[in-house]
């Protein structure tokens, strides 16, 4: 069967998807990157990309590695990362994507655990930081430095180190016989974020990933003219499948953002039509919007009116009921009011995303209702989905014409879901992982003999729609026996622009407490109101400041039971980031690390004198 004869539904491996794409739209734009030297964006067609992939495949083949060898990729998003991934896949090897901002200790652990035969990194400094740890890596045959020339003797160990240029040159003319992978071969070992311990390697086969791509296409279908903006790390399965392999299947262009710091500018320059993101990015835009509105009653009222009218329009289009207080006696005027409100307010927000997004996907973590209501009300087609690394990753998703933001949508075609003990969501289907690398006991704990994967998430299901309650192991049980899923509470509190990041605590305690990172601009406004020094970290500990914070939290938590509302708070100016090991690569909280970091302060919040000062 030639690539022209094959269709997407017949593809069983990722190289087959690539062959189909190159054959069907060879001259279409495949990738777009910013060339810092030239100061401009540069496009690559599918045919040009495939020629590049072939050159890299020759270089990798020249190493004569055994089939299914692990190829570790420690590179930022871009054509280099994609080229090595495609070269490895074509030869039947196993890409092991690593996060470019991960710490050297974690990377060294993964390299040893996956038995990496080759590692490609951006700089020699990165490799030396890993090498100096002295972690044995007997399988490692070569380290390739992608971003700079390398002098002889650059490595302090026996592992040969060379530049990308030298590695590619060594492969010129080398075209040894090779056989493509089968559907059952591994297409990746993707290491979990490690929120509660050492990361586990999730084994995903070609069948797993291709099946997930094919299922997503039946729910959300990008087209050749679509442009994706890629900024989530390719080390995470969400971006690999939804932001890399999906556009490869459909022939859409992927533009690689320069950095998260420059994301706002890149959105306006690239003007993507499809956006794949985690909630944190939408939350940042929402917080910035709240900051812009602060201090202007007129702007705030106009924004609220636009959001209310837009939300009612959205609910009517989706046949969703309005909550109490969301209706209006003047709702019949919505069709007349919307064009003006859209022009005055909504278009300005959509312009922050480039102005032409037709599908904005949010996954990787829950999205607060307030943020979803805002963006949907202002006309951004925001779709929530649900998945996990172990399911390649998408399990369920909303669609543009079938979108209930209070849920994560319906299971994808071909994916079975059910509720087990303690309402745990269980999943079965062709996209469920093969298992955990070298961890049969861990695999057996979550994957039954008949293929049902226990997700660890509590859920409700009604009318085919899935609503995620929270991680079972994260649900807080107070000393009075009340159960509080922290995720929804944290999302609700973070709607207030004062709180940039939120951690809810209270396991085996008599009440719920909260640790929160304050947003600098909003904190400064509050400090001026309370007449305290905003630049003095000690001000955050003052009783008046804590009381003000708790009062604002109470407003956001008014719909929660009294026992779930925080009664003590710790405020900090220190952001939680990947660099300080308090956030995962997909910007989720590393709860264990946070609990250790603030152990002493959390203990202090439960002392009687602290409670008295917070609640006079």
State the low-pLDDT regions, or none: 1-5, 612-616
Number of helices: 20
CATH topology of the domain at 475-614: GMP Synthetase, Chain A, domain 3
Annotated CATH homologous superfamily of the domain at 475-614: ANL, C-terminal domain
The total of beta strands comes to 26
Return the average pLDDT rounded to an integer: 91
Rg estimate, integer Å:
25 Å
Strand order of the largest sheet: 4-3-5-6-7
CATH class of the domain at 475-614: Alpha Beta
CATH architecture of the domain at 475-614: 2-Layer Sandwich
**Terminal-residue CA separation:** 77 Å
Helix residue percentage: 25-40%
Largest sheet: 5 strands, parallel
Percent range for β-strand residues: 15-25%
Protein structure class: alpha/beta
Shape: globular
Any overview of this molecule?
This protein has 616 residues and is an alpha/beta fold. The protein has a domain of 140 residues: ANL, C-terminal domain (GMP Synthetase, Chain A, domain 3, 2-Layer Sandwich). The chain is 36% helix and 20% strand. The chain has 20 helices and 26 strands. The strands form seven sheets. It has a five-stranded parallel beta sheet with strand order 4-3-5-6-7, sandwiched between helices. β22 and β23 form a beta hairpin. α2 packs across α6, α11 crosses α12 and α11 packs across α13. It is globular, with a radius of gyration of 25 Å. The N terminus and C terminus are likely disordered.
